[in-house]
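Quick review question:
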């Protein structure tokens, strides 16, 4: 995407962020789960999201190996829970498995 893609001077998603997000998804997602929504941010960041009737997961990739993770489960605290992650993404794999009823991925390191 070119600079200004959003009509407000938004920066393009960096190749590093895109490559990292792809590796992160490969490492935490079993092959048979529904694909997330991937939304570019105006700062060159990426938002990776799953929204279901049972809850929501949002991963905000601000740069390679820096992810703000948030989830809220139906019937739980509407503020959800959030954590900052760098290097170990096992909790994201666990969240996805719990939300989508999927088996845990075999690898949870985005290398």
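Suggested answer, residue by residue:
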């Amino acid at each position: 995407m070119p600079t200004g893609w959003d009509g407000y001077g938004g920066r393009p998603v960096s190749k590093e962020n895109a490559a990292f997000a792809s590796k992160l998804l490969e490492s935490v997602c079993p092959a048979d789960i529904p694909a997330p929504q991937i939304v570019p941010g105006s700062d060159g960041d990426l938002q990776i999201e799953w929204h279901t009737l049972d809850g929501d997961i949002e991963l905000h990739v601000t740069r390679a190996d820096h992810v703000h993770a948030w989830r809220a489960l139906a019937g739980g605290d509407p503020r959800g829970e959030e954590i900052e992650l760098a290097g170990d993404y096992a909790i994201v794999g666990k969240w996805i498995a719990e939300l989508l009823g999927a088996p845990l991925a075999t690898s949870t390191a985005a290398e």
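Why it works: Strands lie at 37-40, 46-52, 55-63, 66-73, 81-85. The two ends are 25 Å apart (CA to CA).
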